[in-house]
Amino acid sequence: MKATSIRSLVKEFGKHDTVRHSAKEYARGEVHTNTIENVFSVFKRGMVGVYQHCGEAHLRRYLAEFDFRYNRRTALKISDAERAEDLLRMARDKRLTYRRMVKPITLKQKARRLLWEIKKQKDLG
Questions:
Q1: Tell me, what's the pLDDT at 6?
Q2: First CA to last CA across the chain, in angstroms?
Q3: Distance CA 104, CA 57 (A)
């Protein structure tokens, strides 16, 4: 990831530490990449094993689903009932039409929507 991208993430989400794999640094105290590598691994297994294909137009929806499941997993002591309540609350007053689903959007629009969804989920959490 480019340094400019990291800087914009820091502005949006706060402090961000890094490790330098190029300098053979893989962890420093509690700073490591294990968690995100695990998230990507779960996403990849889901895409290969369950969904098998994801068009670019729908990638953010798949990512949002995996994000929802990961942040509400049983290991965090979240019950099935709590997960269902969260899902229903988040789906309230939302409608996805076929036209909206297949309408091409620009990369800038995708980035704005993704950041908005992440911020909204942080506010709900």
A1: 65
A2: 27
A3: 7
Element (H, E) at 32: strand 31-32
From the number of C-beta atoms within 10 Å of its C-beta (0-12, 13-18, 19+), residue 34 rates as: exposed
Q: What is the pTM of this model?
A: 0.56
Residue reference for tokens 């099935």:
80
| pLDDT greater than 90 at residue 30 | no
| Residues 6+ positions from 121 with CB-CB distance below 8 Å | 67, 68, 71, 90
Average pLDDT, the chain: 83
Give the largest Cα separation in the chain, rounded: 49
Query: Does pLDDT of 79 surpass 90?
Result: yes
